[in-house]
Write a structure and sequence with these properties.
By secondary structure, this protein is α/β, with parallel strands linked by helices. The chain has three domains: 101 residues, Rossmann fold (3-Layer(aba) Sandwich); 130 residues, D-amino Acid Aminotransferase, Chain A, domain 1 (2-Layer Sandwich), CATH 3.30.470.20; 53 residues, Dna Ligase, domain 1 (2-Layer Sandwich). Helices cover 30% and strands 24% of the residues. It contains eleven helices and 14 strands. α5 packs across α6. The longest helix is centred in the first third of the chain and has 13 residues. The relative contact order is 0.14. The mean pLDDT is 93. GO terms for molecular function: carbamoyl-phosphate synthase (glutamine-hydrolyzing) activity. This is Carbamoyl-phosphate synthase large subunit.
Amino acid sequence: MLNGKMNILFTSSGRRLSLLQQFRKVFVQHNLKGRIMTADLKKTAPTAFFSDQHFIVPRVNDPNYITELLRICQKEEIDIIIPLIDTELIVLSENRRVFEEAGVKLLVSSKELNDIACDKTQTYQFFQDSNTPTPKVFSDDEINNKHYQFPLLIKPLDGSSSVGVTKINNEKELLFFKDYIPNAMVQEYVTGTEYTVDVMVDFNGNIRTVVPRLRLETRAGEVSKGVTRKDNDIISAVKQVVKSLPGPVGCITLQCFKKENGEITFIEINPRFGGGIPLSIEAGANFPLWVLQMCSGETFTEEDYNWRENLTMLRYDEAVFTESIQHDH
């Protein structure tokens, strides 16, 4: 049973407008009272113009960040915080108790899971330990002794949005990019079809649904064209991974490749709403409703695969025009 009134605060809301609007739709459909608020470093965050109220907050790594969030939560009677970027997941997971004592639910997985997801070497180690296929990462020794074959892939250990992810075709490129990319990690280059998979998990680790989305095109690391696929091999492989994760909560987004031989190999874990989630929601996987249900105390007793297959999302830019912002000259 849904609580009749819910105040939600999306942090680092940026341009995540379609997600906000999909939550708002659920409010209207279920006749829920409450407000949808946003917090961001910038007053120019596009979401600021569509939320009921927008708060300017310090940077996530600022020592006052948590204090300021708590102040907003108490003043505005926030029920749920939904963070939208990776960098604040660890900070919030470390401060879960403070928020819970203030009566605020965090849609955030355990600190352990956020640590694993945030550092690519820990992600690799987790996949190794749980016997999950993943591209091989080469140690410095293996590289020095040339125990590899081209092409390779180099990426920053703690990167996001595909920044610095580079395909390496020869020795010369390897030498250059290994120094050029900060905290570089060298791994096997995998080909196949790339999928992003959205999973909904309640506070007790029960899975509600798994939605594989085939990535047709990406822009700045975020999917710009995608299509939903009911691929049972991927769905069951993803369920295995999620069940072995420590303390997953809310939307968990996984990235994997389906190789030509059918093997599913995992490359990334993002324990938050990914950029392409609007496609899964539009297809009928009602993530906003499920979030509100679990925050009203419900647990998921059965899985739901009633979402539509082959729904394609083609994204384009829209703009907000306003004269209400005072810019500092």
